[in-house]
Amino acid sequence: MVMIAVGRLDGREPLIIERAELVAEVFFRLDASARPGGYDEYIETSQQVHDRIIKEDIDALNRTMRARSKVDWWAELIEKGPLDWLVALGRDWDALALDDATWKALGCSEALAGAFRGIKGRYHGRAVATKLLHLKRPALVPVCDSFVEWQLGARSSMDLVELVEYIRSQGRRNLTALLAIQASLAGRGIHRTRVRVFDALVWSTHPASELASVPDLLRDWTAGGIISR
How far apart are CA 92 and CA 220, in angstroms? Predict the structure, then answer.
């Protein structure tokens, strides 16, 4: 059994996710974003488009990531082709694998700040911005929607770089557990980055999530001897 413990910024008790390997598997089998033709599959099949935004990216957000973002709202960025601020984000940067010294030496925080400035627009909110940037750098940028922010106790006004850095700190605290979950998922044919696994777990346990009851069900089933591993 793998457990994740996530600190919260607002003083609430830590978020404890028991049987996290099974919670993650349920998410990546049942959530629309993880199904065939969904957001996660699109990431796996679109890695050749690293440094620019294309219409298909926006379609992927709208199709299974609960976004309602018109392609017209992105026209200016789409027409620019390769974007300097995307190029500046190293393709091999991994938010949870890089140690603090390397993160600082590479200038990861500064590059993220540039990307968030570059992608900012009237209709490009925080959630949509991180969903799109996750498409481009799936090991670096977590999906930071309102459910994830609330679970972490983050203010909606919190600087996005600070939020990513906080997620990074919590992910690295749970790195051994996340590696075990990632390996468990891979053994079942599900290949996801560690930062994606982390935000999926946090999102799944929000009270308004369609999967919110999963951790409790797993706990009850385990207590009753129905699940044993």
Answer: 40
d(CA 99, CA 103): 6
For residues 106 and 98, is the Cβ–Cβ distance under 8 A? yes
Which DSSP string do the residues of 195-207 spell out, in sequence order? Answer: HHHHHHHHHHTST
DSSP classification of residue 17: E
Please name the helix (run of DSSP H) or strand (run of DSSP E) that holds residue 4, with its range, or none: strand 4-6
pLDDT tens digits along 180-209: 999 999 999 999 999 999 999 999 999 998
Distances (CA, A) of 144 to 35, 98, 125, 165, 182: 20, 20, 10, 12, 20
**pLDDT (tens digit per residue) in 30-68:** 899 988 889 999 988 765 688 999 999 999 999 889 888
pTM of the complete model: 0.90
> Is the torsion defined by CA of 178, 181, 187, 193 positive or negative?
negative
Distances (CA, A) of 104 to 130, 133, 152, 162, 224: 21, 20, 24, 14, 48
